[in-house]
Automatic annotation (TrEMBL), chains A, B:
Protein species of origin: Mycobacterium adipatum
Protein name: HTH tetR-type domain-containing protein
Keyword Transcription regulation listed: yes
Keywords: DNA-binding, Transcription, Transcription regulation
Every HTH tetR-type domain range: 10-70
Lineage of source species: Bacteria, Bacillati, Actinomycetota, Actinomycetes, Mycobacteriales
PROSITE patterns xref list: HTH_TETR_2
InterPro entries (UniProt xref): Homeodomain-like_sf, HTH-type_TetR-like_transc_reg, HTH_TetR, MT1864/Rv1816-like_C, Tet_transcr_reg_TetR-rel_C_sf
Length: 204, 204
C-alpha cells in the first residue's frame, strides 16, 4: 500500500465520520445508523460498514471525537492564575455542552460508551477527567492523588448537572450565565479552603 | 353524581395511573402510550383516552405523581440540625433517582414537562425546588430571597449531575456513596460561610 493510498483511505474515514456527526447533531444518537450515515455521505452502506462495522462502531468513533473536542474546550485556557484557568475550563465545558447537545448526550447520556471502563474510548474519557483533576490540583491545598480524583468527580457532577438542566430548559433562575459563575465561585471556595475529604481507606 | 360514584371514578383514575407508572418503569417515557397503558390496565384505550386525552396527559399526570414522591423523599427528614436535615433531603433525592430512574428521567430529562413554566406540573416542580431553597435558608447565613433561589439552583444542579452520572454508570470514583457525601460536605461548607452571591440587579 502506498502512502498516497493510505492518505486517501484516511480521508474517506474522516469524511464518513463528519457525515456521522452531521446525522448525530440533526437526529440524535438514535438516528446514527450505518444506513443513515451512508445516505448522508452519499456512499454505499457497505463503505460505512467496512470502516465502522456497525452502529456501536460509529458511536465509539463519534464519542472519541467529541471527547477530543471537549478536551480542547477545557484545555484551551492558559491564564496564569489557577482559579481563572479552572473557571475558563468549566466555561469551555459548558459552551461545548450547550453548542453540541447531541454530542454531549452521546458521551455522557444514557447508554454512554464510557460505561465500559476497559474500552479505548473510556481511556480518552478518563484523560479529560484527569485534565480537570490537574486543574483542581493546581488551584490549591488539596492533598494529592485520591482526593483530587474525588474533587474532580464532584466538580464534574456539579457542572454536568448545571449544563443538562440548562439544556433541558428547566432551570429556576433568571440568568443561567450568572448562576453558572456562582456555581464556580462556590466550587473554588469549597475546594480551596473548606473541604477535607476523609481518606476512604480510613472510613469505617 | 353520588359520592359513591365519584369515589369509584377516582379509583379508576388511580388504577390507570398506577398502570401507567408500571409501563414507565418498564419501558421508559417513550413506552408510555394510551395503547400501552390500556393494555397494562386491561381496559379499552378509550378508557385511558377518556381520563388522560393523550400521551402528553399521561406524562403530565405521571410527572406530577413523581414530583410528589420526590417531595416526600426530600421532606421526610425531621432532624433538629439544619445541616443534617439538608443532608437527609439530598440523600432522599438521590435514593429516589436511583430507585426510579425512569420517573426521574421523565421529570428532569430531555422533553421534561416542566419546561412549560406556566403549567400546573411546573408549579408542583417549583414547590419541590422551594423546599430545597427553604432547607438551604435554614442552614445559615445566606441573605434572603434571590440568593436562596440561586443557592438552590446550584445545589439542585450539583446533586442532579451526581445522580445522573451514577445512573448512567460513568463515575470515576470507587465509592459513589462516599463521593456523594463529600459533595454534600463541600456544598454545606460553601453555602454556609464562603459564598456571597452578587445581587444580579447590581451586576453590570
Amino acid at each position: 500500500m502506498t502512502p498516497r493510498r493510505r492518505t486517501a483511505s484516511h480521508q474517506v474515514s474522516a469524511a464518513l465520520l463528519t457525515a456521522a456527526e452531521t446525522v448525530l447533531d440533526r437526529d440524535g444518537t438514535d438516528g446514527v445508523t450505518v444506513r443513515a450515515v451512508a445516505h448522508e455521505a452519499a456512499v454505499s452502506p457497505m463503505s460505512v460498514y467496512h470502516r465502522f462495522v456497525n452502529k456501536e462502531g460509529l458511536v465509539v468513533a463519534l464519542a472519541t471525537r467529541a471527547l477530543e473536542e471537549l478536551a480542547t474546550a477545557i484545555g484551551a485556557a492558559d491564564d496564569a492564575d489557577s482559579a481563572e484557568r479552572f473557571r475558563a475550563a468549566c466555561r469551555g465545558y459548558r459552551e461545548f455542552a450547550l453548542r453540541h447537545p447531541a454530542r454531549y448526550s452521546l458521551i455522557f447520556g444514557v447508554g454512554s460508551p464510557l460505561r465500559d471502563q476497559s474500552s479505548a474510548v473510556a481511556v480518552t474519557g478518563r484523560a479529560v477527567f484527569d485534565t480537570l483533576a490537574t486543574l483542581i490540583d493546581q488551584m490549591g491545598s488539596l492533598p494529592p492523588q485520591s482526593d483530587s480524583v474525588e474533587a474532580a468527580q464532584i466538580v464534574w457532577g456539579a457542572i454536568h448537572g448545571a449544563v443538562t438542566i440548562e439544556q433541558v430548559g428547566i432551570g429556576q433562575t433568571p440568568d443561567a450565565d450568572a448562576t453558572f459563575e456562582n456555581l464556580l465561585t462556590l466550587l473554588i471556595g469549597g475546594l480551596r479552603d473548606r473541604w477535607a475529604v476523609p481518606d476512604p481507606r480510613q472510613q469505617d
